[in-house]
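tool_call: predict_structure(chain=1)
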Amino acid sequence: MNSIILADTPKKQQVRKPHIISNLHLSKFANDAGKLFVYEKDRPVRPSIPKNECVERDYFEYKINGQHTNNLYENWFARTETAVGAIYPNVCGQEPSTQVEREVWAIFIAQIFLRSRKVRHQLGGKLLREMEQTFDPAYAREIQYELFKTGRLIQLSDIKDAIRRQLIQMRSCPAFGHLFRIEQSTRNLAASLMFKRWCISEASSGDEFVTSDCPVSTARLVGNQIVALGQGFNDKATAIFFPLSPTKIFIASPAGTDWVQTFNADQVRNINVITARFAHKNVYARRESELLKKLVDSEINQIEFGVNAFVSQNAQVAKLN
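tool_result:
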């Protein structure tokens, strides 16, 4: 997993308007004309193209203490996406996969979740407030001890000052607060995925899955029944859903969980409800539908991170696992 996880990818031409959600993923929901339909609460449905959606200037860039990221994270995401592009058809076709391919896919899913605006906007501020309110001097002593074991003796007061400076930087620069631990968080979430049972299910003829600007969703299972949404990835009872295309969905679930190969109309709608509830601002679909518009208007963003999802987590994004 280390060969993919590292963010120190080769330099390339600077990207100033990166895709927050993978363009590769969004393109799977475009119709034959290359268009997809964008659904937003209480606004008319609008046609668009994947490359124009989920983009924001310098979203993955920040400057801290005179150091620039210089597309560090964008290059890392692009490297993963290139690797995933080669195996996406095999994943959709449930072809046998190697260990490396599974690792690449798990990292891709973790990145898709963690890089979203929803994680930054809904969890970022909450996690920062928790870190400020629950700052424990014992944490600084733990850091001091770990450094001492490497042969470095640092004054406890200096470590506390460094932690406070980091908190200030996180507050003043949301991108830094969002990204500075994203590699470790990705590693943790991907590892959780590797221990789950993977399967691909299909939509029944005439029915279609949708996706969103936060397309990875989680649910707690009891047997084969969903009893709660927004559970942590590392919970043994958690299932993770990711729509692959309008006709297929990837599910990583607890060992022993079986899913039907073909979801009927009601089951497809239930998955689309979950997708809409996890969406931040937009739901994307291959076609325009009044029924889907009503669903989005009533369900979008009903799952709020830090409010009714991932609420038991500590003040580190890495703890989302």
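agent: The first strand starts at residue 36 and ends at 40. Proceeding to next step.
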